[in-house]
Specification:
By secondary structure, this protein is of the alpha+beta class. Helix content is 43%, strand content 23%. Helix 2 runs antiparallel to helix 3. It is elongated, with a radius of gyration of 30 Å.
């Protein structure tokens, strides 16, 4: 009988047990919370980077599509304008060189290219030519017989942009800013007219 009484006296009170459990939970939360916070911020920054890369890639796809369909015209303003319209929410200073070039069999830039830089502010932006070489329109579309014996050229559009991580975690990992480059290659196919020829003459 006396042993039962002693055991009851040794057992901590329920309130004390709950207090100890709460204290243990707080300690565990304090240990885990920083890790969860870093993980969450890292996921946010990676998500923003993926979105930014996709927008840049999308701008090259849209610009290459415009260029491939209007290859009879040497003026690249429509190509640059398409890049700018897709990236209009980015600061102009973050949009780097835009290359419009004749791609080789591996999709790389050869000796025919033009490099442009966007200037001004959206929507009234402008652009200037930095460097490059002539890509004569007789080379661009080969000739009106591109559907016949001579294969069409491949148009490449490459865009470089500056990405800024938005969290301290991302800045610590990547730095305050870094460059992201995407490109798209498309086969030049001028619109075909009803008589089977193209609008390209030359």
């Amino acid at each position: 009988m006396s042993s039962n009484v002693e055991n009851k006296e040794r057992r901590p009170a329920p309130a004390l047990l709950r207090s100890r459990q709460r204290g243990q939970g707080l300690v565990e939360m304090a240990l885990v919370l920083p890790f969860l916070l870093v993980l969450t911020l890292g996921i946010v920054d990676v998500g923003v980077l993926i979105s930014d890369r996709y927008n840049i890639l999308y701008s090259t796809r849209e610009a290459a599509r415009v260029g491939a369909a209007n290859a009879c015209f040497y003026d690249d303003s429509s190509i640059v304008q398409r890049v700018a319209s897709v990236l209009r929410n980015k600061p102009v200073s973050d949009i780097g060189p835009i290359y419009v070039y004749k791609a080789d069999i591996n999709g790389n830039m050869g000796s025919f290219f033009q490099e442009y830089i966007i200037t001004g502010t959206f929507p009234g932006f402008g652009y200037r030519t930095v460097s490059g070489s002539n890509w004569p329109y007789t080379i661009r579309h080969n000739n009106p017989d591109y559907l016949g014996l001579k294969p069409a050229d491949w148009l490449g559009v490459k865009v470089t942009s500056t990405h800024h991580p938005i969290t301290l975690i991302g800045q610590g990992f990547w730095g305050a800013a870094f460059s992201v480059t995407e490109k798209t290659i498309m086969r030049i196919e001028p619109p075909e007219k009803a008589d089977g020829t193209t609008d390209c003459q030359g």
